[in-house]
Amino acid sequence: MAIGKKALIIAGVLAVVIVAAVLALQNYPAQTPQSGAAQGKFRIVVNPGVAEKVSIKEAQELEKYLEDLMGMDVELSYPASSAALIEALRFGHADAALGPGALVGALAVSLANAELVAVEYREVIIDGKRETAPYYYSYFIVLKESPYVYIDELRGKRVCFPSETSVSGFIMPLKALADRGYITPGEVERPRDLALQFFGDVVFGGGYAQCWAALKEGKVDVTVMAGDVAASLYWEAMNNSRVLKWKDGGYAIAGPNPSHVVLVRGDLPEDVKTKFVNAIFALNNKPELMRNYVSAIFVRFERRDVNEHLKPLIDALDYLKIKEFYLR
Questions:
Q1: Which InterPro entries does the record cross-reference, listed alphabetically (predicted)?
Q2: Best CA proximity match to 197, nearest among 211, 181, 213
Q3: pLDDT score, position 37
Q4: Given a cut of 80, is residue 268 above it in pLDDT?
Q5: Of the ranges 4-8, 240-244, 293-297, which one carries the lowest mean pLDDT score?
């Protein structure tokens, strides 16, 4: 079919326009996302999962409280995942993060240039005593009537960990096993594979209570208990179990496990950062609200050095070579 002269002219004009547009896009400078703080709005991402626990009224109360203290518009957002929270800080879509767990905090500090400005002090049990602290410990336990005394005897046996993403219930216990030569860090498809170097079967129960139930019912031979669980669960488990020992005779304890954190973007202007930090410490006057936004055992926020609080966990992730898994 013959193509008319008019059609050829139109096609030629369109081609010129398209080429010009492509060239313009190639030469157009990349735009860096503008900080919310620079626009007079301070954007805070909160701990993933919080949206299910807080009411609209509580969210509005927190926004209003922070706005009054900071003298600027505050916007709270509720990311669907830990990765989304980290990316928001990394690419300037958020100015701060309120209450993420230690794992998210460690990844944000090491990969997103986030700065630790406050940590949670929480109600925990350490050495059988109630304490208010920014850390706690976890313990490898077996039932009281179990024949096992040393963790070496559990090689090839069944273990229950609360979750593959639990710092106190999995990551730090793995680090304790690696430190003593029971497992060898290396590139693995998932962290569970490291635990399988020593244990015969690895179960993720979904929580400490579920793992304790599995131990009582004989479904596993060993589990982990931590000092930040509900006191009733802690004492039921510890009064009816024994803490295993390492081969040197010391108790099989992992930690210290860091508490939740408050972060800001590394390039946040100092004056804005100061306003935010002051507002965070003012939230110590609203502990009930923070128990919804941070953790159920929240007591207060305090300052703590990042090397003291998060570096042991960052080092554990690097040593075990599992950091990338938690960014998926």
A1: PhnD
A2: 181
A3: 59
A4: yes
A5: 4-8
Ordered by start, the domain boundaries in the chain are: 39-125+259-327, 135-257
Burial 247-269 (b: 16+ CB within 10 A, else e): eeeeebbbbbbbbbbbbbbeebe
Token couple for 181: 């030569």
Rounded Cα gap, residues 72 and 275, in angstroms:
10
Pair of tokens at residue 99: 């209450």
**Backbone φ, ψ for residue 305 (5° rounding):** -65, 140
- Topology match between the domains 39-125+259-327 and 135-257: yes
Contact 315, 258 (CB under 8 A): no
| DSSP string for 164-221 | TT-IIIIIHHHHHHHHTTSS-----SSTHHHHTTT-SEEEE-SSHHHHHHHHHTTS-S
Q: How far is CA 314 from CA 102, 146, 230, 308, in A?
A: 10, 35, 27, 11
Is residue 10 predicted with pLDDT exceeding 50?
Answer: no
Bond from prior residue into 287 cis (ω within 30 degrees of 0): no
Name the burial class of residue 23, with classes exposed (0-12), middle (13-18) and buried (19+) by CB atoms within 10 angstroms of its CB: exposed
In CATH, what class is 135-257?
A: alpha beta
195 has a pLDDT exceeding 80: yes
Q: What is the mean pLDDT of residues 276-302?
A: 97
CATH topology assigned to domain 39-125+259-327: D-Maltodextrin-Binding Protein; domain 2 (3.40.190)
